[in-house]
Design goal:
InterPro entries: DUF2568. The protein has one domain (about 10-120). The protein is about 80% helix and about 0% strand. It has helices spanning about 5-40, 45-65, 75-95, 95-120.
Length: about 120
């Protein structure tokens, strides 16, 4: 049997990576949107930008594939799931219920698929 990756597995890996990227962008948007909707202007705008900048810095330092202090497997996808779920809750708190629930569903699917693909080897 060949060690070559099957097209189906390759497609799942690509799809999971794309879902992960969209979730990362959604995390930034959710953090900004929560602050913007929760606090009066201009504080909401400033806090939203600060939250987004902090999330970018932390993701770059701890979660990105080439991060110097990358959280190791299996904690990394679980930490990502926690952050995505918190972003979903934040959206729900500012009345973006459908978007928040979708973010949470896709986050769970992304995490499950990450573990599934890792198990396949």
């Amino acid at each position: 049997m060949s060690r070559r990756e099957s097209p189906a597995r390759r497609n799942l890996t690509i799809a999971n990576g794309l879902i992960g990227f969209v979730l990362e962008v959604a995390l930034l948007v959710a953090g900004f949107f929560w602050a913007f909707k929760t606090f009066a202007a201009p504080l909401g705008l400033v806090l939203g930008l600060l939250i987004a900048a902090l999330l970018v810095a932390l993701w770059t330092l701890l979660m990105a594939p080439k991060a110097r202090l990358r959280i190791r497997w299996p904690a990394q996808p679980l930490v990502a799931l926690l952050l995505f779920l918190l972003a979903g809750v934040a959206l729900i708190l500012v009345q973006a219920v459908v978007v928040g629930l979708l973010l949470m569903i896709f986050a769970a699917a992304n995490t499950w698929l990450s573990f599934y693909l890792k198990r396949l080897g």
